[in-house]
Amino acid sequence: MEYLRAFLIGGILCAAGQALISYTKLTPARILVTFVVTGVVLGAFGLYGPLVDFAGAGASVPLTGFGNILVEGVKKAVDERGFLGVLTGGLTGAAAGITTAIFLGLIVALIFKPKSKAV
């Protein structure tokens, strides 16, 4: 049942992104920012945590989950360090995901040969 909930919630988030791509003139970069900011806002109001508890990876893996991780990191850092935590908490909270993305990007770059696009 846990897998089904993750699949459904993750699928809904991805379908929303695809709808934005297909039916609006928003650029992919603006859609990315919209999803991250949505995760930040929902996390700041305490609405994204219950969604993650319900859907697991279906809610924590997409870009909205990244926004929520930033908020959670800032909340924890502010509790521990005060105002300085506003500046450091987001990166501390998301460090594992950022490091993984960089490391896997390096591995893929070493394995595959880049090709230029023909114009």
Poorly predicted regions: none
Total DSSP E strands: 0
Alpha-beta content class: mainly alpha
Largest sheet data: none
Give the helix proportion (percent range). over 70%
Strand content: under 5%
Q: Please state the CA-atom Rg, rounded to the nearest Å.
A: 17 Å
Average pLDDT, to the nearest integer?
A: 91
Q: SSE order, as H and E?
A: HHHHHH
By DSSP (H or I, 4+ residues per run), the number of helices equals: 6
Shape: globular
The first-to-last residue Cα distance is 48 Å
Number of domains: 1
Question: How are the SSEs ordered, and which strands pair?
Answer:
Blueprint: H1 2-23, H2 28-44, H3 48-55, H4 57-60, H5 63-81, H6 84-111
Describe this structure in words.
By secondary structure, the chain is mainly alpha-helical. It has one domain (about 1-110). It is about 80% helix and about 0% strand. The protein is built from six helices and no strands. α2 (about 30-45) packs across α5. About 20% of the residues are buried.
